[in-house]
Fold:
Amino acid sequence: MGAYEMLAGCYDRLTNDVDYEAIAAFYRMLLLREGVRPRTAVDLACGTGSVTTILAREGLRVIGVDMSEEMLTQAASKTAGLNPMPVFVRQKLQNLTLPRGVDLAVCALDSLDYITDPKDCAEAIRRVYRALNPGGMFIFDVNTPQKLRAMDGQVFLDEDEDVYCVWRGEFDEASNICSYGMDLFRREGNHWLRSFEEHREYAYSREQLVGFLRDAGFIHIRIYGDRTLEQPGDKEQRMYFSARKGVRL
Structure:
């Protein structure tokens, strides 16, 4: 089964420890540093729309993009009634085509790592560049290679009263990909339904990603640790990138 097909319906419950408000606050900090005041945004790989919701509540006109129909269904339900109402588009990031240009593009929770072909990742970044208005800003985060390598052989568990999820990590040095299989058990009345999903993430280095950004035309490329304005440390688990699209003269 593909990633997020069965997981979509219980994703928020299993990730209730994710501080989306803190992520959005870090975005605001980076925007302030660059002097960018966006009115429009795209939330790339938006999932169930948690970041989309925050951006829309701040008054931005937001487009949410994801390749999972199931996740987009959850996002549309979550954002129903917001004003302005977000627009959702089902697309792979390497095929990104927006109905209008935006001032801000964000991509949270290592979603770029899910693009496991570096050529596709480079194309996705080129597409983001084209989607931005002149002077627009792109902010995203990835898992560090050291984090993904450390997941090899690890077993993790997430659960609540009605959902039980166990996943096992495996890192392949030849492909530079961390795979983790998820066994998901959901309570349905007196029974438990089992499903299985496989997730795969490519361990992109900062040098690779900076190269993709530069090749796409981005300027003012900056790298940060996990929601800190400092450079990523040697043991950093997550790193953030910000970059700008130049203004036409």
Q: What stands out?
A: The two ends are 49 Å apart (CA to CA).
